[in-house]
Every structure is written in C-alpha cells, then in structure tokens.
Amino acid sequence: MLETIPAAPRDAILGLTAAFREDPRSEKINLSVGVYQDETGKTPTLECVRIAEQRLVESAAGKSYLPIPGAPEYAEVVQELAFGATHEVVTSGRIASAHTPGGTGALRVAGDFLKSNLPSATIWMSEPTWPNHGNIFAAAGVPAKSYAYFDQESNGLAIGPMLEAIKQMPAGDVILLHGCCHNPTGIDPTPEQWKQIAEAVRDRGLLPLLDFAYQGFAEGIDEDAVGLRAFSQPGSEMIVCSSFSKNFGLYRERVGSLSIVCPNADVASAIQSQINSAIRANYSNPPAHGAAIVNCVLRDEALRKTWEKEVATMRSRINDTRKQFVDALTAKGVPGDYSFITRQRGMFSFSGLTKEQVEVLREKYAIYIVGSGRINVAGLTPANIDRVAEAIAVVVGPAA
Ligand code: LMR
Q1: Of all protein residues, whose CA lies closest to atom 1 belonging to ligand 1?
Q2: Which of 88, 68, 19, 127 is nearest to 258 (CA)?
Q3: Mean pLDDT, to the nearest integer, of 90-94?
Q4: Active-site annotation holds for 194
Q5: Is 337 a residue of the active site?
Q6: Facing residues of 258 across strands?
Q7: Contact (Cβ atoms closer than 8 angstroms) between residue 367 and residue 380
Q8: Active site residue: 173, 188, 224, 246, which one?
Q9: How many whole angstroms separate alpha carbon 390 and alpha carbon 29?
Q10: Is residue 400's pLDDT more than 80?
C-alpha cells in the first residue's frame, strides 16, 4: 500500500534548515528560519528562562495531565500581556482561550474551530504571507484566498488596495492579519492605518484573526499590540494566535496560545467548549513545561523586568544589524537603494532577491535564504555580514 505514495515537497522554511544541517561546507550561513541569534551566532537561552526553569525544578510540581485548554493562570497572564491587564475584553471575561503547542498549534486549533463552527467561511491571507499559513488552513479544510498587502514599488504597505480588497470580501469570512512584524515583508500598518483596517473589517462584517508571533520585536511589548487593540472594541469579536517562541526564545518548547474574543462572557463559555472539543480530538491537552516558564516569568516582578530587558536587547541588536547590513551592501557596491531594510520591522527583511538569485547564493556561497528573498536579519553577525553582502553583490551584478 505504501509503495505508491510519493515524497512530500520540502517545507519552504524548515526544509531549508534540514538541508543546511546536511550541508558539509564549513562556511555555510543560515539566514532562512526565523530564529534569533546573538552577535556570536548563538541562540541564547534567556536569563529569565534559566532562572524560571530552576525554580520549576525545585518546586517539583506533579506531571499529571493539564486541563484541555491548559492552566488557567497561564491563560490569564497571556491575555493580560496581549490586551493589557485592565482592558475591558480581559476584565469582562469574554475571552475563550487555550494554551497551545506553539503559535502553529494555535492556528491549527483555530482552523479546526472555524471548519466545525463556521463551515462556509473562507480565510483571506495577505499576499505574501508565512508559507505555513496556507498549509495549516488547507489541512484544517478551510478554503483560503489572498488580498493585496505589499507594494513592491515603495517597499511599503499597499494600504489602498488592501482596504479595497477588504470591501469586496463576503461578510462572514475571516481575515488573517499579522499582529506585528509581518512575516515575510517586515512591513506593518501604522497605528492610524490599523484603525482604518479595523474599521473596514468591522464595516464588512468579517472575523479578524491575528497571528501574533513577534510581540516585542518591533517597538516594544505594549507598543506592538497596537493593531490587536485597534480591534478590541466593545462587543468586538476576534481570534488571536500568540507565540512565545521568539520573545521568550522558547522555540522547541512549543508555547503558544489561542484567544477568541467573544461579544460577552456567555458566548465565551460556549466557544470555550468548542475550542476544548477541537483540542481533545487533536492533541488532547497541552505540554506543560514551556507555559509554566512563561507563567513564572510574567508573574514575578524581577523576572519580568529581566525578560523585558532581554527582549529589548534582541530588538536593538536586530535594528542595529539592519543598519550595518545596508552599510555593508553599499560598501560592496550592490546597485540600488537598500535603505528600506532599516524601515522593515521584526526579524525579517524582504530583500527583493529573486528565486534564482537565492538559489545561486545557496549553491555557490552556502548562504541559505527563503525562496521569497526573505532574509533573517537576526542571523547576520559581525563575522558573516561582509561575506553575505559580497555574495549578494555578485549575484545581483553591477548596475545596468
Ligand atoms: C519562520 O517563519 O521562519 C518561523 O516562523 C519558523 C517557522 O516555523 O517557519
């Protein structure tokens, strides 16, 4: 039976990391997967995480199952972090939520929830978007379409076409937005544009779904929630999929959360039961360790301060690296104006490199970049930045 099954295509991002691991060339550089590296090229375990883990070991909590949606105290800190502790959506108790295995787990539970409960809804995704968005909603059986997002000419947000597209979406559909640090473009709406988008989404009767994987990587922990909070009006509905892979450096612990904001607490209780059904049929209940770390850090004043400082350090290293990268490209004589790289936010730079140029970089120079031309700026270090700029100068070629 199994002999006729063909191999699946390689994953656009994690498949590249697998190929990178197998690459025997010692000079290889991985700028594909969105994982933060410090200036020495290491992905650090945050100090706040190290201390929290020590405390967890000492507390020797039991290993029995967690409830289906995870620990209630984790749900509470996650909601407060995303919306603000005193925000009406939190204090009114109208959020149904679950601790999920990573942001990807949250998206998949959201997909299953939509398929079961809003079966005629289509999900609209930005063009471009994170390649796994397509995989996740296809696997859940939710039909997907795309809307204009990126304006190549200005290297900015195509706000006009985006608002026009929203006006054409059928009421009752779902629109997927990136809460901050849009992946792959690094282009976010301004606070004013977020208000316009939220208003258009509300007027059209769409359900917003925010993928919120990079809180703290653009401007600050609270500042980066401006988009999400633009949607948090009295009686509003929305889905938020959070991840703590990046801002806690907890990638392999798979820590995320699904929050469904409902019009009132009674609706939230019904929605909670539907989320629980979706999870029970999927992974039953979540893994405990990563969420226990996040809970411990966010509830301890000193640890929380350490965490905020560590997030700020990662953010400023990425922003400094953006400037150094532009300088290096200019110094190596790459034709064109690359100053847009300093305006992009979060880990990624949508470089404008073509698929063919990306292939040459990998094959000839052992530099791994996602096929869309997305570069993980957090993978550039003082030791590799010049070599990357030099290789880009060769593949791009002299100005015409
Ligand atoms: C990325 O976009 O590189 C990250 O979100 C990691 C992943 O799972 O793709």
Answers
A1: 34
A2: 68
A3: 94
A4: no
A5: no
A6: 98, 241
A7: no
A8: 246
A9: 13
A10: no
pTM, to two decimals: 0.96
Q: Give the contacts of 373 (CB within 8 A, at least 6 positions apart).
A: 350, 351, 352, 353, 354, 355, 357, 358
Tell me what the mean pLDDT of segment 57-76 comes to: 94
Verify that 35 and 80 share a domain, yes or no: no
Q: Whose CA is nearest to atom 9 of ligand 1?
A: 13
Q: Which contiguous run of DSSP H or E holds residue 306?
A: helix 301-331
* Residue 130 CA, ligand 1 centroid: distance in Å: 8
- Mean pLDDT across the stretch 180-206? 97
Question: How far apart (Å, rounded) are the C-alpha atoms in residues 328 and 334?
Answer: 9
Q: How far is the CA of 240 from the centre of ligand 1 (A)?
A: 17
Are residues 187 and 154 both part of a single domain?
Answer: yes
The number of the ligand 1 atom at minimal distance from the alpha carbon of 104 is: 8
- CATH assignment of the domain containing 366: 3.90.1150.10
Ligand 1 atom nearest to 243, measured from its CA: 5
pLDDT band at 398 (very low <50, low <70, confident <90, very high): confident
Ligand 1, atom 4: closest residue by C-alpha: 34
Q: List the single range of 175-184, 190-199, 336-345 with lowest mean pLDDT.
A: 336-345
- Round to whole Å and give the CA distance between 349 and 362: 17
Name the average pLDDT for the chain: 96
Pair of tokens at residue 149: 């997002």
First and final C-alpha spacing in the chain: 56
Note whether residue 155 is domain-resident: yes
Q: Say if ligand 1 is within 6 A of residue 13 CB.
A: yes
- The sign one gets for the Cα dihedral 38, 43, 47, 48 is positive
Give how many domains the chain has, as a whole number. 2
Domain that holds residue 210: 65-299
Is ligand 1 within 6 A of the CB of residue 303? no
DSSP bridge pairs for 339: none
**In the predicted structure, residue 254 carries a pLDDT above the cut 60:** yes
